[in-house]
Amino acid sequence: MPSTPLITLRPFHEADTEFFAGMATDERVTRSIGDGQPWNQQTIQARVHAALQQEPLNDVGASRWFLATEANEPVGIVVSTRKESGVEIGYWVSPDDWGRGIAGAMVDGALVTIPEVYGTRKLIARVDPANAASAKLLTRRGFKLETGHEGLDNYTLA
Ligand SMILES: CC(C)(COP(=O)(O)OP(=O)(O)OC[C@H]1O[C@@H](n2cnc3c(N)ncnc32)[C@H](O)[C@@H]1OP(=O)(O)O)[C@@H](O)C(=O)NCCC(=O)NCCS
After folding, report:
1. From ligand 1's centre to the CA of 56, what distance in Å?
2. 8-120 — its CATH code?
3. What is the end-to-end Cα distance of the chain in Å, rounded?
4. Where are the beta strands (DSSP E) in 7-122?
5. Which of 15, 37, 39, 122 has most Cβ atoms within 10 angstroms of its Cβ?
6. pLDDT, tens digit, for every residue of 25-53?
7. Could you report the per-residue pLDDT of 55-79, keeping only the tens digit for each?
8. What is the pTM of this model?
């Protein structure tokens, strides 16, 4: 059985933008995100800028991103945003690394880091119902499917 990848999460830096842009412009990655289209450079810069703002963590809309590395190489990102009802997480893995358990290992790290950062264990994820890998990794980690909204399934971990 393949071993679990050794993944480290660290805060996202501006210098990580190129790695992020590689994923955000790849339609395999964006298929299950937002309107499903690859992001343009303007959107990428705006999202990175917002993520680096360091807004107070109790403000609704405050976000923190984390770069996931394996052997010091970037393999994915975890994004998190304060919502009224908890902290929403998202995760993207570089397509060349799909299917190796990286997302699962990233979310395992996020389940430790994000409650420490925000001071709450109430986590939320919104998932395209067609995204079987994403639904599976959340369910395996105790997230419960609650409701659907705007075509997405809402999972929560209380
Ligand atoms: C969804 C995504 C994060 C999964 O990343 P990954 O590193 O390939 O996922 P993992 O290898 O950790 O697999 C997670 C689980 O899904 C299963 N899985 C993987 N690919 C699958 C597929 N195509 N269909 C069904 N299950 C699948 C794995 O077996 C694993 O389950 P297990 O723990 O029972 O073994 C990745 O495909 C991605 O970045 N997609 C684009 C962005 C995205 O959709 N993000 C999620 C939105 S919140």
Report:
1. 31
2. 3.40.630.30
3. 31
4. 8-11, 63-70, 73-83, 86-93
5. 39
6. 999 999 989 889 999 999 999 999 999 99
7. 999 999 999 999 999 999 999 999 9
8. 0.95
